[in-house]
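so im writing up the methods section and need the ABC transporter substrate-binding protein record in one place, dumping it here so i stop losing it
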Amino acid sequence: MPAPTVLRSLVLAVALAPACAVPGDSPAPAAQAAEVTAPQRIVTLGNSITEAVFALGAGDRVVGVDLSSLYPDAAAALPRVGYYRQFSAEGVLGLRPDLVLASSEAGPAAALEQVRGAGVRLELVPAGENLDAARGNITAVAAALGRPEAAAEVLAALAADLAEADRLRARVTSRPRVLFVYARGPGRLLVAGRDTTGAELVRLAAAENAGDALTGMKPWSAEAVVAAAPDVVVLPTRGLESLGGVPGLLALPGLAETPAGRAQRVVAIDDLKLLGFGPRIGQGVRELLVSLHPELGEGAAP
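--- predicted struct ---
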């Protein structure tokens, strides 16, 4: 395959411009949660929202999910209604939900309006790419489900994971330069610049973002990748698989000429632990810390 000089772009599942939230579609405040009738048929749009619903013990009420919702296995086996940023209103309504829980990035707007116009309760949960957003989303989803008390256990588990990450971070002595990429095949790869999920994860993992010259998720030239001189390349597991593993990744222009390429230092973490800042984000950060910092030792592995 001819080596392109520019890493081609992909419509990124986690970093596109958010759809506009419609006034009145915000999650029910916790103070009002007692008044919320417990839904019996739920459709979820967005992987972190789906994970939250299952973690909060309401997975048995979910009747449909979007294409990004691959965890847990019970969710992955449910009917699909399209990708949450481009879902099918007809597919959602055909499942006869009494609640649609969606990321504020869900769309298109016409589909949201169609769901609303059919008289179905629609709650938009604010999207975010930081730990405060992860905590807030768990609380918001619990309130929308009419069971705010269920949030405490999930938040406690998240806090325990993050506390362990803090303990690991305190032992870190290295500061590797990390190139965080998102890929779906050799012609579809983006580099995480500033103000991205990838950049926040690199920060939480006590490393430097080699893509800091960029803002957002962007394709990057081979020359820019070489100049960035990353020590490690980090990407979601499914992205690495789409490239044919480490050999396929390092065959992309420029990567083999970096310190990471020469040392073949590539770290792949489960997509849904990293992308979306859901209930398992603490686990993802812990795994990334251990993978990036050899001084932590094998005994630190989750």
